[in-house]
């Protein structure tokens, strides 16, 4: 592909995985929440 002239547009995906937070199962997904 010669369409993408910008470097690293086709080779590497710039989107990196969000690091998982403390107290959560993943970066965004929280464990099952109950009010009481």
Automatic annotation (TrEMBL):
One Gene Ontology term, aspect cellular component: ribosome
UniProt key word Nucleus: no
Region named Disordered: 1-36
Pfam families noted in UniProt: Ribosomal_S9
Gene3D superfamilies (UniProt xref): 3.30.230.10
BP-aspect Gene Ontology terms: translation
GO terms of molecular function: structural constituent of ribosome
Swiss-Prot/TrEMBL keywords: Chloroplast, Plastid, Ribonucleoprotein, Ribosomal protein
Biased composition (Basic residues): 17-36
InterPro entries: Ribosomal_Su5_D2-typ_SF, Ribosomal_uS9, Ribsml_uS5_D2-typ_fold_subgr
Keyword rRNA-binding: no
Domain of life: Eukaryota
Name of the protein in its database record: Small ribosomal subunit protein uS9c
């Amino acid at each position: 592909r010669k369409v993408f002239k910008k470097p690293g547009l086709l080779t590497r995906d710039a989107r990196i995985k969000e690091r998982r937070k403390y107290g959560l199962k993943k970066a965004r997904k929280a464990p099952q929440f109950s009010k009481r």
